[in-house]
């Protein structure tokens, strides 16, 4: 569907897919410009999931337009995006309902088992990547506990959103319940009480467990909330025992380098005003912690200790993303080492920065710190235009320093501007949709506050206060 682009002072506004008329530029205000930008970015990012899902399986590609397998984490983000799209009116509730029901039925019926091939899941856990057409395990990827968690977060979002006395919506609730109850979290506890990163039929359990602050906070909430195969509350204590609290670029907070670790759990859970024992000891909540992480990264970009091109108050954001090339080049008189896909971040534990900036790192921080996020979104959109912003919103990443006559492994170089990705990634598109909506209306948070499994998991982890005190007993 065509959108007509018009100029609106410092920002950019677009015609929406629904055909709404653009605001006259002479009457636009900065706030109106921001709303227009958020409208367009959220809608385009939603379209990634709505338009690119396989029509038969319902699976979502890991990336596009490059040919790709499906990522089950992207499927979880897609299920969440469908709720947003229905509420926004980009699709009808009935359209979203029917697509969700078909997808959940496919996931439930897909073959399970310990075999090396020809299966989709085992013990309720799904393989990290799946063939888009068959849904079977892609090559030799792992049975992933975190990616299954993100899938289940989307499943439970749909369970709580589709709450009407309609047979099709009732079917969604039943399918979601069966999928969630089937996950055997204790199977993944090879070194209890912690949960392993995953399992492979060829080699057994992955040697690493989820300990210390990162994206897996929601994993333990859902594992604790299971009505069939829960982990014990001591698992949360083991998880928090490896936390690291530091002062970094002006902010005291629980640190983890890539911003996705401060964002993913917050896509679904409203941590405002609720605290576990660790955060009660620090006098803040996890929402405030993520705000400080975003502010810390922003200050890091302003100070720019690595001297990367483009970094500043309006261009910042490090997280896992695509990159130009695995190579070391001499640029601006110094050796610069670049990477392709890499978990980029800045923290006392590890600095992984090669000059690649990631739009989702800023965009998904919108609820935490809109005062630094909105200027970044405006600047990225205005400065780089179609090189960075396209059919599905922001492309995955860009690198102003990689402005060289060297062919990248992926993406393109635009001389004078640097390297730009040419793909969108589902796990980066999803947080953009959900976190813009959470900032604007709190939709996903409000939906998940009603889910008994999430409430049970938070309470078993020791969370107290805020909205949790008003939540009904599971």
Bin the helical content. 25-40%
Number of helices: 15
Quote the distance from N terminus to C terminus: 43 Å
Largest sheet composition:
3 strands, antiparallel
General form: globular
Low-confidence stretches: 1-28
Number of strands: 24
Mean pLDDT: 94
Q: Please compute the radius of gyration using only Cα atoms.
A: 21 Å
- From the coordinates shown, what is the CATH architecture of the domain at 61-243 and 441-474? Alpha/alpha barrel
CATH superfamily membership of the domain at 61-243 and 441-474: Glycoside hydrolase 144 (GH144)
Q: Can you tell me the CATH topology of the domain at 61-243 and 441-474?
A: Glycosyltransferase
Strand content of the residues, in percent? 5-15%
Structural class: alpha+beta
Strand order, main sheet: write it out.
8-9-10
CATH class of the domain at 61-243 and 441-474: Mainly Alpha
Task: Please tell me about this protein's structure.
- It contains 15 helices and 24 strands.
- It has helices at residues 30-52, 72-88, 93-109, 145-161, 167-182, 217-225, 234-240, 264-268, 277-282, 286-303, 359-363, 370-384, 426-440, 443-449, 452-460, and strands spanning 5-8, 11-14, 63-64, 70-71, 121-122, 125-126, 129-130, 143-144, 198-200, 204-205, 245-248, 251-254, 320-321, 327-331, 334-338, 342-343, 345-346, 351-352, 389-390, 393-394, 398-399, 412-414, 418-420, 424-425.
- The chain has a domain at 61-243 and 441-474: Glycoside hydrolase 144 (GH144) (Glycosyltransferase), CATH 1.50.10.140.
- Helix content is 39%, strand content 14%.
- Helix 1 crosses helix 2.
- The protein is of the alpha+beta class.
């Amino acid at each position: 569907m065509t959108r007509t682009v018009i100029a609106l002072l410092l920002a950019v506004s677009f015609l929406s897919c629904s055909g709404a008329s653009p605001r006259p530029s002479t009457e636009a205000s900065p706030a109106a410009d921001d709303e227009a930008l958020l409208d367009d970015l959220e809608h385009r990012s939603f379209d990634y999931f709505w338009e690119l899902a396989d029509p038969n399986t319902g699976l979502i590609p890991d990336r596009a337009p490059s040919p790709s397998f499906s990522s089950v984490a992207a499927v979880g983000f897609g299920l969440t995006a469908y709720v947003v799209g229905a509420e926004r009116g980009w699709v009808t509730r009935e359209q979203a309902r029917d697509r969700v029901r078909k997808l959940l039925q496919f996931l439930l019926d897909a073959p399970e088992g310990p075999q090396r091939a020809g299966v989709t899941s085992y013990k309720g856990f799904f393989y990290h990547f799946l063939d888009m057409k068959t849904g079977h395990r892609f090559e030799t990827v792992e049975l992933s506990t975190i990616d299954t968690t993100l899938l289940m977060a989307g499943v439970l979002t749909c369970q709580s959103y589709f709450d009407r006395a309609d047979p099709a919506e009732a079917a969604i609730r039943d399918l979601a319940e069966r999928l969630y109850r089937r996950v055997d979290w204790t199977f993944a506890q090879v070194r209890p009480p912690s949960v392993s990163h995953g399992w492979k039929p060829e080699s057994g359990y992955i040697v690493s467990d989820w300990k210390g602050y990162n994206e897996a906070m929601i994993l333990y909430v859902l594992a604790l909330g299971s009505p069939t195969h829960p982990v014990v509350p001591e698992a949360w204590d083991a998880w928090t025992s490896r936390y690291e609290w530091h002062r970094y670029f002006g902010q005291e907070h629980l640190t983890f380098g890539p911003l996705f670790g401060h964002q993913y759990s917050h896509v679904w859970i409203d941590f405002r005003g609720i605290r576990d024992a660790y955060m009660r000891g620090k006098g803040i909540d996890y929402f405030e912690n993520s705000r400080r992480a975003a502010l810390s990264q922003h200050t890091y970009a302003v100070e720019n200790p690595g001297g990367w091109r483009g970094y500043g108050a309006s261009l910042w954001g490090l997280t896992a993303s695509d990159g130009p090339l695995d190579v070391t080049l001499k640029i601006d008189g110094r050796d610069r080492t670049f990477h392709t896909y890499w978990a980029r971040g800045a923290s006392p534990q590890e600095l992984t920065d090669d000059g690649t900036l990631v739009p989702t790192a800023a965009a998904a921080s919108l609820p935490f710190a809109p005062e630094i996020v909105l200027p970044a979104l405006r600047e990225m959109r205005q400065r780089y235009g179609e090189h960075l912003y396209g059919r599905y919103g922001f492309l995955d990443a860009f690198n102003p320093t990689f402005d060289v006559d060297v062919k990248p492994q992926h993406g393109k170089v635009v001389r004078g501007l640097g390297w730009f990705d040419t793909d969108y990634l589902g796990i980066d598109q999803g947080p953009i949709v959900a976190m813009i909506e959470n900032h604007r209306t709190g939709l996903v948070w409000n939906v998940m506050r009603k889910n008994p499994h999430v409430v049970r998991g938070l309470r078993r982890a020791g969370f107290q206060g805020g909205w949790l005190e008003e939540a009904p007993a599971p």
